[in-house]
């Protein structure tokens, strides 16, 4: 069995979640192919849920795709799909996580014992709602990579980012342009 690809974690929880499926317009890369990997992702973003079952993974994928559809619509300045909004709202309402402050001024999440997966999905849904409602300063955009096309939240000062991540999609595209300009066909 091949190792699972690394997670793409950024500073925005909701888009880090949608980045668990990458290369959406090319050869898709599923970064949470199992319930165990979903639990690993939650651990990586500070929402430790312990174990996770296939039903929780199915609900997570439903939420991930709803966020992606809504974010894509927002990036294209279109109305949000009602079906996506319903899924996001339902997950937000189900979660009962509480934000807690540490003495070191760090926010952590207290998840309900026995409902950790629902609580964690609720936190992700609430983050998506904050972004999609305009509560946070920034703009939605689509990655300029023709194989990626991920929706990302651009909070940069100029609001002119072109890539979901410069160190992946941006570098790949820059390298392809360089190779094309210099007659190097790239790897064969």
TrEMBL record:
What is the top-level taxon of the source organism? Bacteria
Q: What is this protein's record name?
A: Zinc finger CGNR domain-containing protein
Pfam families xrefs: ABATE, zf-CGNR
- InterPro entries linked to this entry: ABATE, ABATE_dom_sf, Znf_CGNR
Q: Which residues form the Zinc finger CGNR domain?
A: 139-180
Recorded hits in Gene3D superfamilies, A to Z, give: Jann2411-like domain
* Species of origin: Tsukamurella conjunctivitidis
